[in-house]
Amino acid sequence: MLAAENGRDPRLKAISDAIRVVPHFPKPGIMFHDITTLLLDHKAFKDTVDLFVERYRDMGISIVVGIEARGFIFGPSIALGIGAKFVPLRKPGKLPGRVISESYELEYGTDQLEMHVGAVQPGERTIIIDDLVATGGTLSAAIRLLG
Ligand SMILES: O=P(O)(O)OC[C@H]1O[C@H](OP(=O)(O)OP(=O)(O)O)[C@H](O)[C@@H]1O
Ligand SMILES: Nc1ncnc2[nH]cnc12
Q1: Measured from the CA of 138, which atom of ligand 1 is nearest?
Q2: What is the rounded distance in angstroms from the CA atom of residue 18 to the CA atom of residue 86?
Q3: Cα dihedral value 15, 106, 136, 126, nearest 10
Q4: Backbone phi, then psi, for 5, in 5-degree steps?
Q5: 117-130: per-residue pLDDT in tens?
Q6: Does the beta carbon of 33 lie inside 6 Å of ligand 2?
Q7: Taking the model in full, what pTM does it have?
Q8: Ramachandran bin of 119, using left for φ above 0, alpha for ψ from -120 to 50, beta for the remaining angles
Q9: Strands 85-89 and 63-67
Q10: What family is it from (predicted)?
């Protein structure tokens, strides 16, 4: 249960304030949300992980799936906090075993995600962790990989 005040967790504002917004990066028109500034703020970084652990522990979740690259920053800590395994979804050509792949479109280009065959067993409850959703293309590809 989140420690909510007026329906909103008091930690959220500091977390939001710790994320730097860089206009026109990496292309004109993109408002880039830079989480590296959040990582420099120990309390905000820890609160971010804690919020997810508090929300998802005791829910029978056995796998945290993290999306390369920035999902790897938050996902493993959340997995350890809730007592789950961690499964990385990687960019093409990085995983040594047999993989399944999904292509997707980004705000600035196209890309592909891969997962090791057998990393997730049918019926396992999972959560998918990344730093942000923009178009939703990456998250949709991750959901298709798990489906
Ligand atoms: O909702 P979407 O439009 O799909 O965009 C969100 C995705 O874009 C960013 O990753 P990026 O592909 O830039 O890779 P990186 O984490 O390796 O920098 C971000 O970390 C998300 O994964
Ligand atoms: N607006 C944005 N900020 C940071 N990362 C992104 N990835 C895709 N869109 C992004």
Answers
A1: 4
A2: 26
A3: -80
A4: -120, 125
A5: 999 999 999 999 99
A6: yes
A7: 0.94
A8: alpha
A9: parallel
A10: Belongs to the purine/pyrimidine phosphoribosyltransferase family.
On the 0-12 / 13-18 / 19+ scale of CB atoms within 10 A, 139 is middle
pLDDT, one tens digit per residue, over 128-145 is 999 999 989 999 999 999
Computed on alpha carbons and rounded to an integer, the radius of gyration of the chain in Å comes to 16
Q: Residue 34 to residues 43, 90, 131: CA-CA distances in angstroms?
A: 17, 20, 9
Asked if ipTM goes beyond 0.90, one says yes
Residue 27 makes CB contacts below 8 A (sequence gap 6+) with 108
- Helix H or strand E encompassing 14: helix 11-17
Residue nearest to atom 2 of ligand 2 (CA): 32
Domain boundaries, the chain: 1-56, 61-147
Active site positions, annotated: 70, 107
H-type alpha helices, 24-136: 36-39, 42-56, 71-82
Ligand nearest, relative to CA of residue 72: 1
**Are 61 and 80 spatial neighbours (Cβ–Cβ below 8 Å)?**
no
For residue 26, the CA-to-ligand 2 centroid distance in Å is: 9
CATH class of 61-147: alpha beta
Structure tokens at 72: 């790897």
